[in-house]
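Morning!

As promised:
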Amino acid sequence: MKNRDKTPFESQLIDLDDLIHSKIRLAIMTILMSVEKAQFTYLKKLLKTTDGNLSVHLTKLEDAGYISVDKRFVHKRPQTTCKITAKGRNAFERYVDVLEQIIKR
Amino acid sequence: MKNRDKTPFESQLIDLDDLIHSKIRLAIMTILMSVEKAQFTYLKKLLKTTDGNLSVHLTKLEDAGYISVDKRFVHKRPQTTCKITAKGRNAFERYVDVLEQIIKR
């Protein structure tokens, strides 16, 4: 919030977090902000995407520390569960701060 | 607005207008929404970008009918003026509708 006053709005737009700004990752993050955790299969269905594509984007978010991905076997079937982290939540909130300014204008 | 109720939010996110979603074009559109018109040199300075890069993105927006670009000589110097069109304004408002939903969640 403090930075917002100092950094010109245009620079903030250009500096929008690319990790979140990609549409599919924005969708993943938006979903994970509103649920405690989400299964891989649930995200895949909601986002109408493929295993491969979803995996790529989840890995990017995981590598950035924005989400945690837990893989385990449940009743002998692999189950992948995703959760937003505190770092991811902060990053998303910073991102949304800029969106709010776009709207206010 | 009617579509909003029918189309799942996740699909709306994935369907966000790519012409606007690119960060530099989002910045250009946001600026042009708030001014009557803007000079090329003004946009270039605000966005801290090059002639070539700005031209590419302005042409994409112009080709989509989202902005009009007027080139003329003023005191023997070329002057390029950009303005948002009604179509651009509508597209931007649809885009912002989805941003608002991201924030509300």
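The interface with chain A takes residues 8-11, 13-14, 16, 18, 21, 23-24, 26-27, 30-31, 33-34, 46-48, 96, 99-100, 102-103, 105 of chain B (CB under 8 Å).

Hope this helps with the figure draft.
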